């Protein structure tokens, strides 16, 4: 299915930006700063109401009523804005935080030695408080030690779980008894607080062979555009190496991969030209209206998140973990965010967005959009920092 044309709102954004007529599939967006300025600009979540399309998709994928979806979006915006303030307020006692969907507010974990003043400050921000045994810094150190190990293919990944206050190591069920997996788990447990979880399948990337009518191609590989930056767009690193040429959905030349990293990371950026340009939009593929992007405030664990890709189009889920190391067959990739949103081959590089805030680009996962699964994305702010790019956002 060839993508729908941009909605009236997106087209208005083009007119305000002074761009000529649309030449091809140019998706997502970023944090607004003047072209040429270094580094990303992360803005607080917008007070704009959620679009009908986002609300409808959350009703479908998360099993919510319309009122529940609207209330959750508003609460998640508040939680995203409060998270960095709460972390600063907790100081050395900070043990992690997450969005509690049932309560509709941010929960902050602190160690038993957190002072009364610290707890009062957190409550003043509207946060729930939970006591935990390990600080976030201690758990991050455990994960870093595990990152130095060589993981067998039967280990699919590991991440800090702030709710359980431990580092969770995921093992593919059929490999749980493998000797190399057992040896890895023995080493991992020596690193500190570790819990082992069994998962049904190993992750894979979501690139695909060439088919007609989708966003961009490199050789015989199809991937999805992520978010627009000034001068190009960001996407997944496993889609191509630096210097690779890129063609659009209509077969015309878009530009070139200027930077790419995979494994270790899974990000890349493509410069655009030849009549193509960038717009601050995530495609809705006719499932929902195209979404304007107004910033890149990070959604905490527990928040809803939606994904746009050239194969499965638009689907929503929940943020399950931050800063996870994922062990693909090609090698480990670090600092990914795990979600319950589904994806399929060809969706690689596509946009993850919460409300109107850009989150990251699709890396990989397991399952599909018929039977369900999990996905990971590379956070967009990390990509911007790595390449000195500026996200393109709508500021109207």
TrEMBL record:
Residues 134-185 form the Peptidase S1A alpha-lytic prodomain domain. It comes from the Bacteria. Keywords: Disulfide bond, Hydrolase, Protease, Serine protease, Signal, Zymogen. Residues 1-23 form the signal peptide. Residues 233-384 form the Peptidase S1 domain. The keyword DNA-binding does not apply. Belongs to the peptidase S1 family. This is S1 family peptidase.
């Amino acid at each position: 299915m060839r993508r729908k044309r941009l909605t009236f709102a997106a087209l208005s954004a083009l007119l305000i930006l002074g761009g000529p007529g649309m030449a091809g599939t140019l998706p997502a967006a970023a944090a607004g700063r003047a072209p040429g300025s270094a580094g990303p600009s992360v803005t607080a979540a917008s007070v704009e109401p959620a679009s009908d399309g986002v609300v409808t998709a959350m009703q479908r994928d998360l099993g919510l009523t319309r009122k529940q979806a609207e209330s959750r979006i508003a609460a998640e915006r508040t939680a995203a804005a409060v998270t960095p303030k709460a972390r600063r307020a907790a100081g050395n006692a900070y043990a992690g935080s997450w969005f509690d969907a049932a309560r509709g507010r941010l929960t902050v974990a602190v160690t038993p030695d957190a002072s009364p003043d610290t707890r009062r400050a957190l409550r003043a921000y509207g946060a729930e408080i939970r006591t935990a045994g390990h600080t976030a810094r201690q758990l991050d150190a455990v994960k870093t030690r595990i990152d130095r190990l060589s993981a067998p293919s039967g280990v699919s990944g590991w991440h800090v779980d702030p709710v359980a206050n431990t580092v969770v190591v995921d093992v593919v069920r059929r490999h749980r008894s493998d000797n190399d997996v057992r040896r890895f788990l023995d080493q991992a447990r020596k690193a500190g607080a570790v819990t082992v979880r069994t998962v049904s399948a190993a992750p894979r990337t979501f690139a695909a062979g060439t088919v007609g009518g989708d966003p961009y191609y490199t050789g015989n590989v199809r991937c999805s555009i992520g978010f627009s930056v000034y001068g190009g767009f960001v996407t997944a690193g496993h889609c191509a190496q630096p210097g690779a040429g890129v063609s659009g959905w209509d077969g015309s030349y878009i530009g070139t991969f200027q930077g790419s990293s995979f494994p270790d990371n899974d990000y890349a950026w493509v410069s655009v030209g030849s009549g193509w340009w960038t717009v601050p939009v995530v495609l809705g593929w006719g499932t929902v209206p195209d979404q304007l992007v107004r910033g890149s405030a990070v959604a905490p664990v527990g928040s809803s998140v939606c994904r746009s890709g050239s194969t499965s189009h638009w689907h929503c889920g929940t943020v399950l973990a931050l800063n996870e190391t994922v062990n693909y067959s090609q090698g480990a990739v670090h600092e990914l965010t795990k979600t319950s949103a589904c994806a399929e081959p060809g969706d690689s590089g596509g946009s993850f967005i919460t409300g109107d805030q850009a989150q990251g680009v699709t890396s990989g996962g397991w399952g599909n959009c018929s039977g369900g699964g999990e996905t990971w994305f590379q956070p967009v702010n990390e990509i911007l920092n790595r390449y000195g790019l500026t996200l393109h956002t709508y500021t109207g």
